[in-house]
Write a structure and sequence with these properties.
By secondary structure, the protein is of the alpha/beta class. It has 11 helices and 17 strands. The chain is 33% helix and 25% strand. The protein has a 6-stranded mixed beta sheet, sandwiched between helices.
Amino acid sequence: MLPSPLLSARNLAIGFSPKQTLARDLSLDLLPGEIIFLLGRNGVGKSTLLRTLAGLRAPLSGTISYGSQEIESLSAKAKAKYRAVLFPTQLKSPTRVRELVSLGRLPYADWSGQISRHDQEEIDRSLLAVGCGDWNDRWVDQLSDGEKQRVLLAKTIAQGTSILLLDEPTAFIDLPQRMELAKVLKRWARQAGRGVILSTHDLDLAMATADQIWILESGGSWTSGIPEELAMSGTLGRVFESPEATIDRATGRLIWCQTGGPTVTVIGHGPWHDWTIRALIRAGYQIHDRSEVVIRVGSSLEGASPWSLSIGLQTEDIRSLAELLRVLNQKHPA
């Protein structure tokens, strides 16, 4: 039996007015322990959906509940104890990091605005969670964009809510830190039975991390499912493919399509076979099962010549992938 949702919406319509409806008939649930990635092309309404779920924008129709409470019945302070939100912002604050993160505890302050020792402990935990445990006295204005984003995420986590709604939280963060923060959020959700919904354009991160993916499509269509099913069903391809890019159903990755270029056949298996194909596509070649140009790839880099290139009756041993691309470009240019 599934646990009760932390957040649920029924028959939800979102947009700016009845004549500017972005999506309708949305019914969705966020369960304890889940991290959900919201995907879609620009302009389909991802930010509007998050703002509506946060109670910052009224739905055009339908209901939203936090637990058993419909959000229409909740005050702003009560909402702040159920959910925390993070939207893109230009952060310019002449304060120190701990002062900024402590603002996340304001919903719990007493009548004089003071926070307790427990609140201070929550601030410590949130700073540690995003890798900023020793940043207390750093000035926010002196942080990089990525560092500011991590501090804002710490402030959001410090709010201590059961629901996090995050709009592009990894936008200014480099690749290793994106993966680390995604793991932090997943661990945070799992350990405390909380839930996370975040929007992103990072398909690879969503495929590697999400418990579910929600996809908003132009025209208001709505699809949801686990990453693997969305990839295998062709849903990701339908939404994100273009004449320039396609979805690899084996990995869920978006890869560049080269059309009209010369063909090559690649024979082999293992990681170097896969990376050779990626390099060839990037260089402008089409992969074909019957071409006069044949590349054979060894299963490892052990040995003198992991690659061999055959054009017609001539075969040449190649020592590196970079050399393969140079020789191929000379004899069979893209």
